[in-house]
Amino acid sequence: MLTAVTLIARPDFSVTTWSCTGGHAEWSEPESPSAGRFVLVRAGRFRRRGSDGPSDHDVTVGYLGEPGEIEQFAHPHGGDACTSLQLSSDSWWQLAGEPQRPGAVYVDARLELAHRRLLATCRDDPDYQLAEDLVRLVSSALHSAARRPIPAGTPARWSDRRIVAQARDAIRQADPAAAGLFPLAAALEVSPYRLSRSFSRELGVSVTRYRNRVRIGKALDLLRRGDSTPTDVAAALGFADQAHLSRSLRQHTGRTPAAVRREFRRGATA
């Protein structure tokens, strides 16, 4: 079951949250939205098939959909939740320029934090602050896609895509085999070099940075809830100590745990 909630709607842009309950392994009927959109995942994962081919999406990989692009979806892993930042066709092409077929986009921790802030404050000043934040997010994603688009995959590359997909699953689920590069490579029956190279080619980041990106995403979620101290968060996610968490969070988002918590608190009380 799909549920959509429109948070803000204007002629030139809108923000909609989507949630899916239950599993649907088969591809949906083709659809062709008239608006351009940047879709970010908040929880769970799903599959999308667009002009760039099939791709898997979770909190670390969103997607850009151009106006009129035909797309289908599948939900083989159960429920998921996402946010769609939409621009009218005219506004999209003003921002994007020529068609790029950008498709899947790696979502780093800074982008995830900006996404969470936008949701927390989107009703405060929708016609200026939200519009500016939305344009900034979509522009950042378009720029990222132009610099290093995630490949759609050709027959010669499918093995690399499978390696990365399986490694992402293991890292996301905190599988014991994902405790290090060598045990993860052994579990996937590939060499550590092949695993590392596959990540760099498919996502544009190292497997180490991706693993830390997943941990930082979980840290942001715990800090947003506000019921855990930074020390608790560090221990729960396997950081050496609070200082290690602080360094990693600053590297990925440019902010300390205390600063992140203050931003979420302001959003909750606004």
Notes on the structure:
This protein has 270 residues and is of the alpha+beta class. It folds into two domains: 2-147, Jelly Rolls, CATH 2.60.120; 155-269, Homeodomain-like (Arc Repressor Mutant, subunit A), CATH 1.10.10.60. 48% of the residues lie in helices and 20% in strands. The protein contains ten helices and nine strands. It has helices at residues 89-96, 109-121, 126-147, 158-172, 181-188, 192-203, 207-225, 230-236, 242-253, 257-269; strands at residues 2-9, 13-20, 36-44, 46-50, 53-57, 61-65, 72-74, 80-87, 103-106. The strands form two sheets. A six-stranded antiparallel β-sheet has the order 1-2-8-3-6-9. A hairpin with a 2-residue loop joins strand 4 (46-50) and strand 5. Residues 151-156 have low confidence and may be disordered.
Compact overview of the structure:
The protein has ten helices and nine strands. The chain is an alpha+beta fold and 270 residues long. The strands form two sheets. The chain has a six-stranded antiparallel beta sheet. The protein has a three-stranded antiparallel beta sheet with strand order 5-4-7, with no helix packed on it.
- The radius of gyration over CA amounts to 19 Å
Second rung of CATH, namely the architecture of the largest domain = Sandwich
What is the total domain count? 2
Distance between the termini: 31 Å
**Helicity, as a percent range:** 40-55%
Run of helices and strands: EEEEEEEEHEHHHHHHHHH
The overall average pLDDT, rounded, is 86
Shape call: globular
Low-confidence stretches: 151-156
The side-by-side strand order for the widest beta sheet comes to 1-2-8-3-6-9
CATH topology of the largest domain: Jelly Rolls
Number of helices: 10
% residues in beta strands: 15-25%
